[in-house]
């Protein structure tokens, strides 16, 4: 039984390996714990295109959320933080694209359970040709400096 399990796992790994693009690296993934009753959450990470060609990030999915979007936030001329959805994202050759609290973020809409400090949240980046890169976001404590743009819509 053990051997069969091992073989199955190995086969699964082989089947999945074409999806794990070596030329796209996702790292430094993190998120914030969510306050009670909140159905939205944010995620940050760095996506590096180590290939010699541009790569298009088409969409992002996660089993923990109904929908995941790419959002961009900035401060308008009145000093008000705003955010808006971004469609696909093009990563230039060699580019390290950074999602961080001052620019682009991953927006979870409709999370199925609160994000708890210390938990790991899986995120899958879907590139053109259905190439997929999965990263785990580490949930950090909710701190008061969360920009206004990240309050529930
Ligand atoms: Cu957002």
Distinctive features:
10 strands; 48% strand; binds copper (II) ion; mainly beta; 10-stranded mixed sheet; 153 residues
Could you explain the architecture of this structure?
Helix content is 10%, strand content 48%. The chain contains one helix and ten strands. Strands 1, 2, 3, 4, 5, 6, 7, 8, 9 and 10 form a ten-stranded mixed sheet that branches. A hairpin with a 4-residue loop joins strand 9 and strand 10 (132-140). The termini are far apart. It binds copper (II) ion. Copper (II) ion binds next to strand 8.
Which secondary structure elements does this structure contain, and how are they paired or packed?
Blueprint: H1 2-16, E1 24-32, E2 40-49, E3 55-61, E4 65-75, E5 81-86, E6 89-91, E7 96-98, E8 104-111, E9 120-127, E10 132-140
Parallel strand pairs: 1-10
Antiparallel strand pairs: 1-2, 2-7, 2-8, 3-6, 3-9, 4-5, 4-8, 9-10
The protein binds copper (II) ion (CU).
Rg, alpha carbons: 17 Å
Strand tally, please? 10
What is the level 1 CATH name? Answer: Mainly Beta
Do you know the CATH architecture?
Answer: Sandwich
Specify the biggest β-sheet: 10 strands, mixed
CATH evolutionary superfamily: PCu(A)C copper chaperone
CATH topology: Immunoglobulin-like
Q: Flag low-confidence runs.
A: none
Concise synopsis of the structure shown:
By secondary structure, this protein is mainly β.
């Amino acid at each position: 039984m053990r051997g069969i399990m091992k073989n199955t796992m190995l086969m699964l790994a082989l089947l999945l390996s074409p999806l794990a693009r070596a030329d796209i690296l996702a790292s430094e993934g993190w998120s914030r714990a969510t306050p009670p009753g909140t159905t939205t959450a944010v995620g940050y990470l760095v996506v590096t295109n180590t290939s010699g060609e541009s790569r298009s990030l088409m969409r992002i999915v996660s089993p923990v959320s109904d929908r995941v979007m790419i959002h961009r936030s900035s401060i308008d001329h009145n000093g008000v933080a705003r955010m808006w959805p971004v469609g696909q994202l093009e990563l230039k050759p060699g580019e390290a694209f950074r999602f961080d609290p001052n620019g682009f973020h991953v927006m979870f809409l409709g999370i199925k359970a609160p994000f708890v400090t210390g938990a790991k949240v899986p995120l899958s980046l879907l590139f053109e040709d259905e190439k997929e890169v999965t990263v785990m976001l580490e949930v950090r404590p909710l701190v008061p400096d969360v920009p206004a743009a990240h309050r529930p819509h």
